[in-house]
């Protein structure tokens, strides 16, 4: 069976195709042990059907299910390395994978979703009012330029002042509060400039911004040519000569002790385990893509410590989702005292996640060469450095945009995703797609890359550098081709109404909001308790937090968060035996004591529990 034009579209089949293509593209970047589990993967649709849920022409659900399948293969291989070989079947729940792509829009605090939370419920990290003031928020948006038919996505990032002044608008305009009037005002300002002029100003002022290109035009650019030749992520040994250190000797587990010297020590238990229990991760990221790497590693048992500056802005509500499973702390690395604390934390870490513009953290010793030197100083226990950025191509000849700032909408516009979305909506203009799908997809790629780096560190020694980017995710997505014409027509009928009245200038908040309302009407089961977890968060004033369940299951392994989300900067900057929270199924009515007993029993039992989701029409991946 295939996804031919005469059959209803099957995400399970599409995911299997995407998985096989992903395995081909990253073959040289992952251990063969990851690939050996590919035949164990099953893509499982729910009893509600096997279908596309998002109003997008791109194969987003296929791709995220494929990446999650590879993540599960990585967990299985690491589980074998650490805890001994076992028969491990792998299931990817397609509905949960879809929920992962819009996790920030499903997460709730005290029953409130994004855009519904009253002031004071979440600490305000929008220090520059780039999110809370609509006029300033719309300085990050897509507008037409002076050249008819050419569109440019300006981006004020997390401080709109420079961007607005760049196009000769005041940084604040208290009288301008209406959504449409804000758009009219800003687009009129952008229309005074050509694309070339906007590019020149962007460079001068260090702003994020790009022309919205079509896929075929992106591939003609020097950067497009270079980055499109890369796999979705890269994993390579750090140049030991550059770092001036001997390579860490490899460690091979014995038949009786599967914990070699680089894995954290601890008692070997029977039953299910976390693949990354005890691995220490420092996360230096904001917003969604980078923090999703840490969030995903935490679901495999890693200790993830998110480090942000006390005055560094971030999107407040996103923290409810992406900080799940972590501890968070504030450190100002410009302060000698805080930098010393950070260095002490770093000396014990296994993984560093860098979500900033390439090279921005080098002055704090957070570059690959410095980490490799530090590995030598601490007894040759290597580091895994994981970099996530917008454009990709760091160190690649011809990748001229590698050092530019950027966010999801920037990548979606420059690669051609926005033009594909606009055409799907019946427009002769680009439109930003709904939901932070590229953000979450890139984060999932970064998680797999990190797990590959950890496996290589264990089996080959040394320190490892892993890189992925929003553009690399989008390139993989677009290379697969768009959904078949009949499936796009079906989606147009399902989402007929306000969503298809949107234009290029409508913000990602507006686009995602209209998509979300339509999805709630068409696919209400995606928003029900069956797919959610819940717990109370001490960091958010003991309010109840809800978030989507993990999409993958691997026999003999736990893949589930142990800690509630918390705001940035909540915890002390230290490692240690962090307490665990009681995580419940959202629809579970058991008492806390009953749940605690269930959790303790699960820690010592074999994986006998099976998903309640119907297993009819599962598709087994073939590699």
UniProtKB/TrEMBL annotation:
**Superkingdom of this entry's organism?**
Eukaryota
Q: Which InterPro entries match?
A: CoA-trans_III_biosynth/detox, CoA-Trfase_fam_III, CoA-Trfase_III_dom_1_sf
Q: Where is the composition biased (Polar residues)?
A: 614-623
Enumerate the residue ranges of region (Disordered).
593-623
Span-the-membrane segments of this chain are none
Checking SUPFAM superfamilies in the record gives: CoA-transferase family III (CaiB/BaiF) (SSF89796)
> One Pfam family name from the record?
CoA_transf_3
Molecular function GO labels:
catalytic activity
Biased composition, class Low complexity, residue ranges: 593-608
The Swiss-Prot or TrEMBL record describes its family as follows:
Belongs to the CoA-transferase III family.
| PANTHER family, per database record | ALPHA METHYLACYL-COA RACEMASE-RELATED, CAIB/BAIF FAMILY ENZYME (AFU_ORTHOLOGUE AFUA_1G05360)-RELATED
Could you tell me what this protein is called?
CoA-transferase family III domain-containing protein
Organism from which the protein derives: Sordaria brevicollis
